[in-house]
């Protein structure tokens, strides 16, 4: 079994065996543990799970969205990426402008009521089309507030200045690779009330040794089945991109999670995944002609040799 699937599935087993039932904001319910760490050697292949298909283009387009400093869903929708739609949709249906069918608790109701799910899908399509085609609507209801892209690229300091944390990290790696300050923070106490979803992966730090770049990312809350495979791949891609610009190889990716949980309606899916044998990890190929990570587009990033087991579908808890 490859090291990525093994370490991830070990976590799944650990939660099922040692986790505690815990209620949550979404009302779905979880099995949760507090505090867990995983390590991945990026030299052994790109850490994208093979025991189920993880859509890499969605991972890549989301990361490029962050790196652009963007917080509006329009870019994601233009790239057929819908992983943030529910949070923007929630903002719309809870506003005074919305006058359609009642969408209260749409995340849970759509899973249990086929008739309601049809209405929900219809309203979601309306929302997506308006974000894509109505600039004013997109500004008001497509923007998720000061989430990752804003905090990464335009952090607002107490001194009234804005700071580009990603550019600082790149410049500092080139200038002083032994620095212990290669850190980006997305958690701002004063901004939480303005964020549709406060950052789950709230901080990350880089470390350079022997010409290799390693990264550790921290998560306050983590949906193990749907979210974590994306998070691992996203921070691995970020590490590759920064290493590319700084002329380094990649080293380790380290995950540290606080409330690490499996949603109660994902247990069957996890159990299915646990029965599968892993396959060879893919490799990542970046366009060598692109020098700055801020200039990368989707077509400059290629995943080679990815042959996973089929997708396992599961509902998103909103």
From TrEMBL:
<keyword id="KW-0963">Cytoplasm</keyword>
<dbReference type="GO" id="GO:0006235">
    <property type="term" value="P:dTTP biosynthetic process"/>
</dbReference>
<dbReference type="InterPro" id="IPR036926">
    <property type="entry name" value="Thymidate_synth/dCMP_Mease_sf"/>
</dbReference>
<dbReference type="GO" id="GO:0006231">
    <property type="term" value="P:dTMP biosynthetic process"/>
</dbReference>
<keyword id="KW-0489">Methyltransferase</keyword>
<feature type="binding site" description="in other chain">
    <location>
        <position position="25"/>
    </location>
    <ligand>
        <name>dUMP</name>
    </ligand>
</feature>
<feature type="binding site">
    <location>
        <position position="317"/>
    </location>
    <ligand>
        <name>(6R)-5,10-methylene-5,6,7,8-tetrahydrofolate</name>
    </ligand>
</feature>
<feature type="domain" description="Thymidylate synthase/dCMP hydroxymethylase">
    <location>
        <begin position="7"/>
        <end position="318"/>
    </location>
</feature>
<dbReference type="GO" id="GO:0032259">
    <property type="term" value="P:methylation"/>
</dbReference>
<dbReference type="GO" id="GO:0004799">
    <property type="term" value="F:thymidylate synthase activity"/>
</dbReference>
<dbReference type="InterPro" id="IPR045097">
    <property type="entry name" value="Thymidate_synth/dCMP_Mease"/>
</dbReference>
<comment type="function">
    <text>Catalyzes the reductive methylation of 2'-deoxyuridine-5'-monophosphate (dUMP) to 2'-deoxythymidine-5'-monophosphate (dTMP) while utilizing 5,10-methylenetetrahydrofolate (mTHF) as the methyl donor and reductant in the reaction, yielding dihydrofolate (DHF) as a by-product. This enzymatic reaction provides an intracellular de novo source of dTMP, an essential precursor for DNA biosynthesis.</text>
</comment>
<feature type="active site" description="Nucleophile">
    <location>
        <position position="200"/>
    </location>
</feature>
<dbReference type="Pfam" id="PF00303">
    <property type="entry name" value="Thymidylat_synt"/>
</dbReference>
<dbReference type="InterPro" id="IPR000398">
    <property type="entry name" value="Thymidylate_synthase"/>
</dbReference>
<comment type="similarity">
    <text>Belongs to the thymidylate synthase family. Bacterial-type ThyA subfamily.</text>
</comment>
<feature type="binding site" description="in other chain">
    <location>
        <position position="231"/>
    </location>
    <ligand>
        <name>dUMP</name>
    </ligand>
</feature>
<dbReference type="InterPro" id="IPR023451">
    <property type="entry name" value="Thymidate_synth/dCMP_Mease_dom"/>
</dbReference>
<feature type="binding site" description="in other chain">
    <location>
        <begin position="261"/>
        <end position="263"/>
    </location>
    <ligand>
        <name>dUMP</name>
    </ligand>
</feature>
<dbReference type="GO" id="GO:0005829">
    <property type="term" value="C:cytosol"/>
</dbReference>
<protein>
    <recommendedName>
        <fullName>Thymidylate synthase</fullName>
        <ecNumber>2.1.1.45</ecNumber>
    </recommendedName>
</protein>
<comment type="pathway">
    <text>Pyrimidine metabolism; dTTP biosynthesis.</text>
</comment>
<keyword id="KW-0808">Transferase</keyword>
<feature type="binding site">
    <location>
        <position position="223"/>
    </location>
    <ligand>
        <name>(6R)-5,10-methylene-5,6,7,8-tetrahydrofolate</name>
    </ligand>
</feature>
<feature type="binding site" description="in other chain">
    <location>
        <begin position="220"/>
        <end position="223"/>
    </location>
    <ligand>
        <name>dUMP</name>
    </ligand>
</feature>
<feature type="binding site">
    <location>
        <begin position="180"/>
        <end position="181"/>
    </location>
    <ligand>
        <name>dUMP</name>
    </ligand>
</feature>
<comment type="subunit">
    <text>Homodimer.</text>
</comment>
<keyword id="KW-0545">Nucleotide biosynthesis</keyword>
